[in-house]
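Translate structure to sequence.
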């Protein structure tokens, strides 16, 4: 990811160049970047503050690597505990606005993909609660509940949202990383952000997010067992220690989020989900 500051006859502007260089992402770049470009076009003019698409080269025909060029949005990623409650409320309202984006049949993104399955769940070594993990795995081993589909960001969490201001002036200024956009249950996006909040700020923060979403006007599965399925499907995708998200979080200053801390929070979060919904 590079920032490009340009100057020309029309003045100055700043853009962001996103390039895929790791072999895994290069193999999937055409699908990922083509999808993100289509989504950014769709979101133009909506109340979702997404970057504006400038150009895309998903097969590296013109660039050294598969790349997408987009506008630079104001704001910063904020992961610290200060103002976390206020940010969570803004996150819930912004997510609801994304779910309400009108999408016709021709624009509908692909069906969601599950990021966990029973055979791929890695339990924490030395856990003192093996029965809890098995119970969670047994839930996602069942068939997915029926759902009313909507437009999903699919990777909506604090690391992909930009904020400006403080106090009463705190605002969401941007939502980025639209490569995983999908069609599926609102519960799945809510589950993903809830897990992230539980890992970042503690289990209670993760447990409150669905309530914030509903209070903002969102609708989730009416059956608690169905909602529990989506919450566990996401949580187990982070097992055993949420390393995929932990690395960038630590790079942004959350060095306190060690593997031990995240493993403990994830396990406590599973228990809290069963206490409330199961």
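Result:
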């Amino acid at each position: 990811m590079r920032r490009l500051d340009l100057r020309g006859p029309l003045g100055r502007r700043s853009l962001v160049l996103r390039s895929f260089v790791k072999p895994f992402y290069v193999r999937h770049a055409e699908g990922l970047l083509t999808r993100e470009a289509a989504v950014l076009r769709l979101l133009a003019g909506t109340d979702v503050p997404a970057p504006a698409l400038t150009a895309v080269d998903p097969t590296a025909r013109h660039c050294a690597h598969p790349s997408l060029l987009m506008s630079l949005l104001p704001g910063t990623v904020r992961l610290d505990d200060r103002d976390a409650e206020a940010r969570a409320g803004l996150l819930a309202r912004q997510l609801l606005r994304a779910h309400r984006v009108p999408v016709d049949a021709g624009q509908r993104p692909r069906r969601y993909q599950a990021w966990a399955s029973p055979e791929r769940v890695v339990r924490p070594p030395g856990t003192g609660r093996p029965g809890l993990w098995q119970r969670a795995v047994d839930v996602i081993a069942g068939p997915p509940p029926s759902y009313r589909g909507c437009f999903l960001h699919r990777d909506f969490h604090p690391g992909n949202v930009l904020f400006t201001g403080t106090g009463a002036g705190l605002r969401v200024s941007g939502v980025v990383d639209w490569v995983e956009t999908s069609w599926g249950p609102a519960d799945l996006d809510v589950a993903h952000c809830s897990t992230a909040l539980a890992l970042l700020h503690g289990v209670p923060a993760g447990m409150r997010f669905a309530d914030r979403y509903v209070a903002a006007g969102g609708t989730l599965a009416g059956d608690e067992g169905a909602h529990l399925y989506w919450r566990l499907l996401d949580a187990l995708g982070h097992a055993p220690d949420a390393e995929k998200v932990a690395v960038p979080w630590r790079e942004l200053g959350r060095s306190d989020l060690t593997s031990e801390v995240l493993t403990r929070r994830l396990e406590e979060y599973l228990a809290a989900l069963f206490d409330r919904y199961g």
